[in-house]
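#structure-requests
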Amino acid sequence: MSRPDLAVALLTREYPPDVYGGAGVHVEYLARELSRLAEITVHCWGEPRPPESEPPVVAYEPWQALGGGAPHLAALRTMSIDLEMAAGVEGASLVHSHTWYTNLGGHLAKLVHGIPHVATVHSLEPLRPWKAEQLGGGYALSCFCERAGLEAADAIIAVSAAMRSDILRVYPAIPPDRVEVIHNGIDTDEFRPDTGTGFLAGLGVDPAAPIVLFVGRITRQKGLSHLLDAAREIAPSVQLVLCAGAPDTEKLGAETVAKVEALRTAGRPVTWIEEMLPRSKLIQLLSHASVFVCPSVYEPLGIVNLEAMACETAVVATQTGGIPEVVEDGVTGLLVPIEPGPGGSGEPADPGRFAHELADRINRLLDEPDQAVRLGKAGRARAIREFSWTAIAERVVDLYRRVLDARLAPT
């Protein structure tokens, strides 16, 4: 039953139909489940959503005066939406922000309306220094927005224990008792094995031949470049399928194109899908992959690993961040060790060695398909058992209530 006095404003950049990453997937499913327990309104970026949306959605566009192509303007446009969101949540009893894009909006709403601010951390800006390539001086602004929002938040949700440790290390001013671990989830009724092959056939991908699959944005964080290097050590007959788009910079996009073309020139089959796929097509790809690969150098949790596991696909993933909390080495997949180099970017100190170790784990599962099947089935069982969105929403609402009760408690 929903609590009538619990009116929550969820602040997010991404919300359907504009979802491009794990944070957007998280908010989409969390909002659905929370709406059964509380009065939820989603505040997001973009064009107006249908008035009959459930839960209700309020959308915001950046200030037109901030038009232009300078990299730092992207961060200033974000801040303009934060101002609008802070004004737009009037009447809420609590505001819940997701990512740096809305952390400042949550903080301002707390100040303006005198309501608690809960923030979910999906990643940390200071641990993504490569974003300076993308945002220029705007990277200093994104770090400011995140710090201001998190340090003053009434409660912080970390999507993994590793993420919690990072929060307390990066922001030592945050009291540890304000940071609680609540994992991401997965809808295992929607993400389940799909035996259909129509979409694969349209791509020219043979479902009967081995498939290595990557799904993610073209950003340093996701480690696609390392997978492309590893692909040189994988059997030439193996089909490499990349669902990868939206490069952070032109330079990174060009680097990716060059590596893909080098593989194709060497006679290796590479299918590159650059647009965001409808979920049904993604599920078919995940279901038929022999191995799903997550070569991220920084990953607080990685919802996409849960999606692959729910589709009974074995996962090869980097042993970093929150990934080991999802992928059990030797049980639901294989983990690849990484030794980060200097600079705090998470990039491996020895990229060649990391690519070799990645190829080694992929080849193990390609050479032993029965093991891959066992890991895949164990992965789905784990996803069902431990990552239900219903249970996650109940924990989030419990946190809301504790935060509100603490506000009402006599001092």
